[in-house]
Amino acid sequence: MKQIKKYVKKENLPWGILLLVAVALGTKFFLVSEPNQVVATDDVAVISSTENKVEESEELVANDKMYVDIKGAVKKPGMYEVSSAMRVLNVVELAGGLMSDADDKQINFSEKLEDQMIIYVPKEGEEIPELKVHNEKNEEGNKRESKESNKVNINQAEKEELMTLNGVGEKKAEKIIEYREENGSFKTIEDLKNVNGFGEKTFESLKESIIV
Length: 212
Known about the structure:
This protein is mostly helical. The protein folds into three domains: 60 residues; 68 residues, Roll (Ubiquitin-like (UB roll)), CATH 3.10.20.600; 60 residues, AF1531-like domain (DNA polymerase, domain 1, Orthogonal Bundle), CATH 1.10.150.280. Helices cover 52% and strands 10% of the residues. A hairpin with a 5-residue loop joins strand 1 and strand 2.
């Protein structure tokens, strides 16, 4: 600054003023330029973050896409692109609706969709084979569960429950419990024959009434 003041004399006054103005403008540009760079960096970060969110959103939408195949008494049977939020009714609508001879009583329109699902709309008087097989399996499973629920679990039953078995009194029930405590759980119902007092005949009379 001393050099600048020394230079600024009356005869050099116009040039001195220009020099001071130039120095002032240069200093202002230097001080202001740094924050501008930071702002620009923040803008780039915001843009990058927005692009990432858009890509994630597009990926979620892509993952949610599924395809189902609708057949039978609909106007436009075929494969349709659906989403997990849709129901069977929505697919029927995509397929142009039901034919006049469609039996809608056999269709669960509220059922949620799954990828690669096959929806078959039968005609009146027609039975869906898949549903019949499915129902028979359910009935068979329910009967088996009901039957097994009436059996005595020889690994879990207390003395009183074991005594409900045919030919098992207090002493034999205690022997079963004693065997469990010494050897651990029965692996199969046939292991009951390892308990003292339970021979082949006794086991044969109990095998339909016990489980492990």
